[in-house]
Structures are given as C-alpha cells and as structure tokens.
Fold this sequence. Notes:
The chain is an all-alpha fold. The protein has a domain at 110-207.
Amino acid sequence: MSAVLSLLQSRLLRPVFVTxxxxxxxxxLVAVALTRSTxxxxxxxxxxxxxxxxxxLSDELAQAAKEVTSSLxxxxxxxxxxxxxxxxxxxxxxxxxxxxxxxxxxxxxxxxMAQLLASVAPxxxxxxxxxxxxxxxxxxxxxxxVLFVVYDDATGQHLTRYLNRENPINEALxxxxxGERALDKLLDAAKNDPxxxxxESSISPNGVEIG
Length: 211
C-alpha cells in the first residue's frame, strides 16, 4: 500500500496518472453517450415497430369486423327468407284447411236445409198450395248463403217462381244461363258454376216421390 502511495506522490508519474484518469473519464463519457444514443435509437425503432404493428392490428380488426358484420347480415337475411317462406307455406296450408272446413260446413248446412224444406212441403204440394210453398222458398232465401229455392212437382214443373233478384250472384247467373224462363236460366247456370253448391232433395212421403 505504501508503494502505491509513493508512486502517486512521485512527480514523474503524476502526469501519467492524470492523463490516464482523463482518458478513463473520456471513455466513460463516450460510453455513456453511445449508450444513450443506442437507447434512443432502440426506443425510436421500437416505437416505429409498435406503431406499424398497431396500425396493422387495427386494420386487421377493422377487416374482421367488416367480415363479421357481412356474415351476420347474410345470416339474418337468409334466416328472414327461410322464416318468411316457412310462414307463407304454413299460412297457405292453414287457409286451404280453413276453406275446406268452411265449404264442408256450408254444404252440410245446405243439405240440412234442403231436407227440412222437403219435409215440410208434402201437404202444400198435395193441396196445390203454391203460396205456402213460395213462402217456404222466400224464408229460406233470407239466409245470405242461400241463392234460391225452387219447388218442382213429380214431373219437373216449377211450383214456385220466387227469385231474389237483389242478389248480385243471381243476376250474374241469369246472364250466363240458358233457357226460356228466368228460373230455367238460373238453374242451368248454377249447375255449371263450380262456385255454386247445387243440390236437389227428393220429396217422398211414404216412399212416393211427389216433388
């Protein structure tokens, strides 16, 4: 330790040590400067890379969002179309079923009314009571679903001639039908019109047809 102190106190070596110290200080300063410069460059490079990566990620996320939105829109449209088609088909089927049910009910009602009108007519036919038969026909035609009621005798001659001309359907049938008299035209058109349920009911008291 004393040898080192003697060397530091030597006038000849003192300038050398001073020079070495200055050189070391300069190296340290240069190293610090280079380190700071390197760190700054690294920070700048890292910032640029992060900026580029962030922009790229943002673009990718935006593109993914567009694709997801497009897929959802397509799925929504497809689902809506399938639901609409399904509901339309189901509605059409239900309408057909409802129409068939209504037609059956109307036909059943018409058959019941025809049988009723036939069951009350024998006495009036035997007595040639045309006003009573006409009254039966007039009352039946108060039902909006009944277009006409005609009583015939056993030979097919009309016993009643009452016709509700206020019904536009009857007027249309009269224009289309063939025959000399209005009832003949009406019956002819009704028999050939698929929208009209035409039926005949036999009046046969005791098994003998009288009308």
